[in-house]
Write a structure and sequence with these properties.
The protein is mainly alpha-helical. The protein folds into 3 domains: about 120 residues, HUPs (Rossmann fold, 3-Layer(aba) Sandwich); about 140 residues, Alpha Horseshoe (Serine Threonine Protein Phosphatase 5, Tetratricopeptide repeat), CATH 1.25.40; about 170 residues, DNA Cyclobutane Dipyrimidine Photolyase, subunit A, domain 3 (Orthogonal Bundle), CATH 1.10.579. It contains 24 helices and 5 strands. The protein has a 5-stranded parallel beta sheet, with helices on both faces. α7 packs across α13 and α17 packs across α21. The longest helix has 25 residues. The relative contact order is 0.10. The model has no long low-confidence stretch (mean pLDDT about 95). Bound molecules: flavin-adenine dinucleotide, ligand DLZ and iron/sulfur cluster. Flavin-adenine dinucleotide binds next to α11, α13, α17 and α19. Ligand DLZ binds next to α1 and α2.
Length: about 500
Amino acid sequence: MSTLRIVLGDQLDPRLSALDGASPEDVVLMMEVADEATYVRHHPKKIVFLLSAMRHHAAALREAGLRVDYVQLEDDGNSGSFRGEVVRAVARHRPDRVIVTEPGEWRIEADMAAWPGLLGVPVEVRPDHRFLCSRDRFAGWARGRRQLRMEHFYRDMRRRTGLLMTADGQPEGGAWNFDAENRKRLPADMPVPEPLRFAPDVGTRAVIDLVAGRFGAHFGEIEPFWFAVTRADAEAAFRHFLRVALPRFGDHQDAMRTGAPVLFHSVCSLYLNVGLLDADAMCRAAEREWRQGRAPINAVEGFIRQILGWREYMRGVYWLEMPDYAASNALAAAGRLPDLYWTGETDLHCLAECIGQTRREAYAHHIQRLMVTGNFALLLGVAPREVEEWYLAVYADAFEWVELPNTHGMALFADGGHLASKPYAASGRYIDRMSDYCRTCRYDPHRSEGEGACPFNYLYWDFLARQRARLAGNPRMALPYRNLDRMEPARIAAMRGAASALRRRLGVEP
Ligand code: FAD
Ligand code: DLZ
Ligand code: SF4
């Protein structure tokens, strides 16, 4: 039976389920299509990364003896869509069946439902084994639970995988999590490592030219381009992280510093999400660093929790709840995303740093995404759709299955508490505690009113006042509301006035 096997751009793993049982007569289809670069206007660095990694992967599959039909963006007749290219490929190769691994985005899976009728041959959609928890298993775990909590899921995953577990089933180090040790400030004189960077080869250079010509007007700088685009280089980047950064990953996980975009983070999400790295292997390698005494438990547990816990949990929630999940808007946020997210032009230093580095690198670490850009959009009351589109477009690691729960649920509380037990709303004091941004800002993180007051401060109190009916009943919000209630009404009115003026100035509301 002749088979057309499809490999999408974020499925670059030679052990992909769609390739199980492949024979030399089968055709492996890979397609560069304009729709995928433009359904949101992706950062050009992200497009270069995807296309170059796809081209290198196609070469590796051919070397392994597979017959790859690779459609390039610039090929004559390129239809611009997955659907159009699969139709053309079926006409070219006349297969008896099509096999594909489940995609990472709901919109593609919904489109695939129409393929059998369109193609006139059966389409088999196989589970994606690159994840540690299958969609079915997650649904089974969630069934019957009144409330889903990442921590419970994570413990279940630790037990199931044996990661960081003792022989008698207890968590190594005597605790499931060491978060309390993971919120240290970063001393100003502490040197920080750099991630491993790679010079573009000839193939990547050609992709840079192609992308600059077609998508150069999108937000983001294309050069310098330094991401790995092969499995071997991605593995080298991860080994480098284990050696130079993992030991301090836990201590300074929440820290931010001017001019230092990466600190002790791995910059591995982009590799992991497209299949150049493997989640299980990464967790096992990190565990080994602890077992062999090269990294402390708070660092290794913290790192494993991000991948085994948060990453798998986000995916589980996405597939469990879509498509309704994306439509929820628990805080009734309806504002416009301010232009500064696209221009980077702002005198709020923390925002200028995080957006500026995003423009240059297509990267920001978790606390920058959550507590600076995400927090600001939450406090302003920007409509979830607009914020989500921004996050999906600007980060090299962004695919909807992981971007949406993080933005919609974690950063914006738009799901009303499915993912987080309370909104991650914070004032400028939090940013001041975790970064050096405020030191060179024209605003003062200790002031909430009057000239020079930090906008995060008055927006924070305005947010609490505005959302009282929705949030005051949440036990985890009791303390902030007690603090708000102790304030003079005139002070609250002044801060709310400043917040309203800022929202108008930024174009969030008319
Ligand atoms: P590290 O700090 O080194 O963490 C190690 C790994 O853990 C990461 O590579 C990543 O695979 C995983 N991880 C860590 N936190 C999370 C999380 N919350 N959810 C899922 N995986 C996690 N991550 C994406 O991969 N794609 C996205 O589109 C994305 N969008 C986000 C949007 C918002 C608003 C927020 C708050 C977070 C988002 N994240 C996203 C999660 C997280 O910010 C990134 O995974 C992380 O910053 C990637 O950098 P790193 O590889 O250096 O991570
Ligand atoms: C993000 C992206 C881009 C920019 N281009 C392509 C492409 O040309 N071909 C492809 O197969 N995949 C691309 N991708 C990744 C897809 O958007 C991703 O595979 C789907 O969204 C499913 O997760
Ligand atoms: Fe950001 Fe406020 Fe600090 Fe300025 S003072 S960097 S606006 S938190």
